[in-house]
Amino acid sequence: MSTRTETDFTHIDPDLYAKAFELLDPAPEPVAPAAPAAPAPVSFILAAPPVRLTGGVEKTLTDALAFLDTHGWAKHRLIHPEGARCSIGALRAAAGARNDAYRDAGNLLLDEARQQHGKQWESIPSWNDAHSGAQVRSVWEAAIRRAHHMNI
After folding, report:
1. Which of the chain's ends, N or C, has fewer CB atoms near its CB within 10 Å?
2. Alpha-carbon distance 125 to 122, whole Å?
3. pLDDT greater than 60 at residue 116
């Protein structure tokens, strides 16, 4: 069995197809190459401040100290009925959960407390309860500076 295929196609001029496609999808206008941009002067590059992101530990410590400034600082209890908190309570409020930033911020805060007030402190609450507000704030500020310099 043989199959014969007959086509009744009329020959079309290929230039006509090319013209039709050009009308449907015109080629973009040729763009002159842009002149290369002048390099930035060295003084501009050196004057630009470095981009630095705040680390999780620094942010947690900063937010916790801001919480203490706003709601008050307390001794001998995690949360005072009027909203004030002790240092560990402020850390928990700032971190939102017991995550890595919370743990690392607490370790850094306790380490700074030990540097300023002696190695005998085994926990943040015991240190917090044994010191004045000014002494506690001094430790917080030093811990924030250390976190900043450590970029954590």
Report:
1. N
2. 9
3. yes
